[in-house]
Amino acid sequence: MDYRFSAAQGAALSQIAADALLVVLTADQPTTGSEALDKLIKDAVSSKDWECKAGKTLYIHRPAGVKAPRLVLSGAADASVKAIRAAVGKALAEVKSRGGVQHVALTCSAVLDAAHAQALVQAVDEATYVYRQTKPSAPKPAALSKLTVVAAAEQGAAIKAGLSAGQGVAAGVALARELGNLPGNHCTPTFLGQEARRLSREFKHIKAEVLDRAAIEKLGMGSFLSVTNGSAQPPRFIVLRYEGGAKSQAPIVLVGKGITFDTGGISLKPGAGMDEMKYDMGGAASVLGTFRALADLKPKLNVIGLVPTCENMPSGTATKPGDVVTSMSGQTIEVLNTDAEGRLILCDALTYAERFKPAAVIDIATLTGACVVALGHVHSGLFSADDELADALLAAGRQALDTAWRMPVDEEYGDALKSNFADMGNVGGRDGGAITAAIFLSKFTKAYRWAHLDIAGSAWKSGAAKGGTGRPVGLLTQFLLSQADAGAAAIKPMADKKAKPAPAARRVPAKRVATKRPA
Predict the structure, then answer these.
(1) How far is residue 200's CA from residue 440's CA, in Å, rounded to a whole number?
(2) Which single residue of 24, 405, 411, 438 has CA 20 to 30 Å from 124?
(3) Pick from 435, 432, 418, 447: nearest CA to 359
(4) Where are the alpha helices (DSSP H) in 141-212?
(5) Residue 412: how many CB atoms within 10 A of its CB?
(6) Rounded to whole angstroms, how far apart are CA atoms 240 and 237?
């Protein structure tokens, strides 16, 4: 998509040369300053064909006095970024499928800034995305290939900056969405490793290392390996590096759950809806998508991406309920439910993250159905005992329109994880399931500042609109950009905050945790 800015206002708006002109109007500013456009708006309102309200649109073909052959009026609730983005999405729905529309011009009665422009790009990307990798019968791509934002000249610099940033984020969201939508027989752990390597070949600021089973065994990741036991697909542990800051700068580490298909293992899920478990690698997709966005935006900071990825399958070699496994940290885990596998692969990745002496670690996972029950599909669940980190993530989510909601992590919830046969169980009771899952992960994060994003309700949609959303790439990218811009106010490692260092993790010899590939 080609994004442009053009300076025009008042009477010049009606003479814009484009296949379609989209006019977004707010209730408190329902005019454009163009006599021809304002007459059409007044006539539409007086004839009750249209109201200047959120969600209301009107398509006018061959509008009198307007050079563009197609005109769309779209109402916005107010001048907020969220309201303008929604109005643009509604307007695009009126023209995106029309074969003759290749160039759309957009103008708004509200004053637009960089945040508005960034959101416009994301609205266009969402409106025009069609999955076609394994569907030859999918509709042809929309003819729309160019969007020009038209506003007063003094808004130009901010709008251009926003359009540029928006394209970087949109590229990351598109990659995450596409990876999520691929079926499990295409998007395997090996495929995700190949995708990481592709990013490193294409973008010089990104480096990728992909560890195989033997290397994972050597690290002592017994918890991670226990999940792979039932699958013929080999596991992978992906390490991504984005090096945009000084070598001395502590990195931010993103850890993404990469279960490329989740049957539940021996604790088998119900068959209905199990096809959607191809989305259980949404955390991994969001990490890869965020690195794709970083490649375009080039912020001055260092970022590490860690992706433990495998399948969770039932077989004669699969881990059984009641088995006890040893994590990389040396802590033992009683596997009470093999369908609580995401935390088993994440905990070893979180231990591995210690070696980077990070400023902060954020894990992202489609972890619990309980989080969907608690928050639905609007907010991602945010769990952290670190107020500064949590506030920064919440603020980034609001700015990116990719919101999260903070959940409790009180120590008392940890009582549910007690085990008679191991240091902890991998599940508690039914109550507070998303919280106890976060508490489990927190037991492997004592050496650094940490937050957990449960994206089970936000990473994909079900029903007629079934598909990946690309969330929370927007939130993560905005958080990283904000940290890069924060300078001395950026989040510092725990050591810089004079926090008490965590005790050294117990290391377990690889031979105690090594597992064999199924025959």
Answers:
(1) 33
(2) 405
(3) 447
(4) 156-181, 189-202
(5) 10
(6) 10
Whole-number Å distance between alpha carbons of 96 and 104: 9
Q: pLDDT tens-digit profile of 158-187?
A: 999 999 999 999 999 999 999 999 999 999
Given 85, 213, 236, 343, which residue is catalytic? Answer: 343
Residue 174, token pair as written in the block: 């598109």
What is the spatial distance between Cα 178 and Cα 333, in angstroms, rounded to a whole number?
Answer: 34
Q: What is the dihedral of CA 407, 412, 417, 418, to 10 degrees?
A: 170
* Length of the chain measured in residues: 519
Token pair 């003819």 is found at: 143
Sign of CA dihedral 112, 292, 447, 223: positive
* Catalytic status, residue 355: no
Backbone angles phi, psi at 450, to 5 degrees: -145, 145
Provide φ and ψ at 301, rounded to 5°: -160, 170
- The residue written with tokens 């004669």 in the block is 316
The alpha carbons of the chain give a radius of gyration, in whole angstroms, of 25
Is 269 in the active site? Answer: yes
Residue 189 to residue 105: CA distance in whole angstroms: 42
CA angle 484–485–491, rounded 5-degree value: 60
pTM: 0.94
**70-76 and 57-61 as β-strands: parallel, antiparallel, unpaired?**
antiparallel
pLDDT digits (tens, 9 = 90+) for 364-388: 999 999 999 999 999 999 999 999 9
> Of the residues 269, 320, 398, 461, which is catalytic?
269
DSSP conformation letters of 242-305: EE-S-TTSPPEEEEE-EEEEE--TTSPPPSTTGGGGGGGGHHHHHHHHHHHHHHHH--SSEEEE
Q: Is the pLDDT of residue 319 over 80?
A: yes
In angstroms, the CA 323 to CA 320 distance is 6
pLDDT tens, position by position, 215-248: 999 999 999 999 999 999 999 999 999 999 999 9
Spatial distance between the Cα atoms of 186 and 2, rounded to a whole number of angstroms: 31
Residues with Cβ within 8 Å of 441's Cβ and at least 6 positions away in sequence, in order, are: 343, 346, 347, 350, 363, 450, 452
By CB atoms closer than 10 A (0-12, 13-18, 19+), residue 323 is: middle
Distance, in Å, from the CA atom of 178 to the CA atom of 26, rounded to the nearest integer, reads: 34
**Cα end-to-end span (Å), the chain:** 48
Burial class of residue 316, CB neighbours in 10 A (0-12, 13-18, 19+): exposed
Contact between residue 343 and residue 324 where contact means Cβ atoms under 8 Å apart: no
Structure tokens at 387: 């107020």
